[in-house]
């Protein structure tokens, strides 16, 4: 099998890999480098959405493809308490994957130095002073490989591993009666027998809404269970019985305190496999963009992609690991944890914490809002392991 050589290889042509190539070309960090993007799919479907929050006036590198923005956040407890959240200047943003793929790929394909290969990846590793990838049909080598292909790691006995799994549907209906300017950030008005479970409702306008059934647990449900819960929520909570499903999506995101490896030789991991997913929430998009900024800054300053300081601090990793251990104990339930949080702390402080940008006083406010007796044991377990 003949080996083909490149300067840069991207393993995984999803959000992380395509973001890196797009931004590196846009910022003229990679000018003459020959680049190969390997993925098994051509990315021509709207297979997921990425949501995140940013302060008003702050833009991200993909602002042009933000599909919808909301300033008003609502929270509903399992006991049907409604809270309008004080989010300060934060705005919630949604990007549809198909819009992202079209925008990014249209730009990347202008560059003759970029090749695409649609094959299954068999292995990724180092070969001498280069990095190498073997696919189902070929072998490729390069100076650097950026890998975003996730597989569940080999956990240690002390590691927690939850899955944030979700089924989302976009529907068209004439029965949605609430204000489309308000998004339901977390709606716990559903049963909790399978773990921390909530809905996430994003109105695009008065007639089109995105509804997602989300769980934090250690195993997936049967497909029909997601569908059943969505149907009940639409009928009993939103009072919608007449609707047309326009699109569907399903996803599963790791929520774990496992310590992911950022780099092995000249293979650099990005996205979830590089530790860019926040363990307590599953949010990945902005953390990945922050990592890419560090990679590109290092190329500009040092002519290599290596950096030391991670976006998610050790402090936040310890707090996330503690929360996962509390959830694992199943005494202080997840829906009650979030209800206590949003009842007692301003949402803008919580959002800063979840973004990894909270101060020590912010962290103390958050800890004081929760029932400390359930956190002491898990916290000690985390810091002494």
TrEMBL record:
What's the short name of a Pfam family annotated to this entry? Lycopene_cycl
Name the InterPro entries on file.
Answer: FAD/NAD-bd_sf
Protein name as catalogued: Lycopene cyclase
Leader sequence range is none
């Amino acid at each position: 099998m003949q080996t083909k050589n490149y300067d840069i290889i991207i393993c995984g042509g999803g959000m992380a890999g395509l973001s890196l190539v797009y931004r590196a070309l846009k910022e003229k960090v990679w000018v003459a480098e020959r680049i190969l993007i390997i993925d098994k799919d051509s990315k021509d479907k709207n297979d997921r959405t990425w949501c995140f929050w940013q302060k008003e006036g702050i833009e991200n590198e993909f602002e042009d493809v933000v599909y919808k923005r909301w300033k008003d956040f609502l929270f509903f407890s399992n006991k049907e308490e409604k809270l309008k959240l004080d989010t300060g200047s934060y705005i919630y943003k949604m990007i549809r994957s198909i819009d992202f793929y079209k925008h990014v790929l249209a730009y990347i394909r202008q560059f003759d130095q970029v090749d695409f290969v649609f094959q299954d990846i068999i292995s990724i590793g180092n070969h001498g002073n280069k990095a190498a990838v073997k696919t189902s049909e070929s072998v490729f080598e390069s100076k650097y490989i950026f890998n975003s292909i996730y597989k569940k790691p080999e956990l240690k006995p002390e590691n927690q591993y939850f899955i944030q799994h979700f089924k989302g549907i976009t529907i068209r209906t004439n029965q949605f009666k609430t204000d489309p300017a308000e998004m339901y950030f977390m709606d716990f008005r559903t049963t909790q027998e399978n773990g921390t479970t909530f809905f996430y409702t994003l109105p695009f306008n008065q007639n089109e809404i995105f509804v997602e059934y989300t769980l934090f647990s250690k195993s997936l449900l049967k497909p029909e269970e997601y569908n059943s819960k969505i149907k009940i929520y639409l009928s009993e909570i939103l009072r919608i019985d007449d609707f047309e499903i326009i699109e569907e999506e399903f996803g599963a995101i790791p929520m774990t305190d496992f310590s992911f490896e950022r780099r092995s030789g000249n293979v650099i991991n990005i996205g979830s496999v590089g530790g860019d997913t926040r363990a307590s929430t599953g949010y990945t998009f902005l953390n990945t963009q922050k990592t890419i900024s560090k990679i590109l800054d290092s190329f500009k300053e040092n002519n290599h992609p290596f950096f030391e300081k991670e976006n998610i601090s050790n402090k936040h990793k310890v707090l996330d690991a503690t929360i996962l251990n509390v959830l694992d104990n199943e005494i202080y339930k997840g829906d009650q944890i979030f209800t206590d949080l949003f009842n007692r702390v301003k949402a803008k402080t919580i959002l800063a914490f979840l973004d990894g940008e909270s101060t020590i006083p912010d962290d103390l406010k958050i800890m004081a809002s929760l029932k400390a007796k359930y956190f002491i044991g898990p916290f000690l377990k985390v810091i002494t392991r």
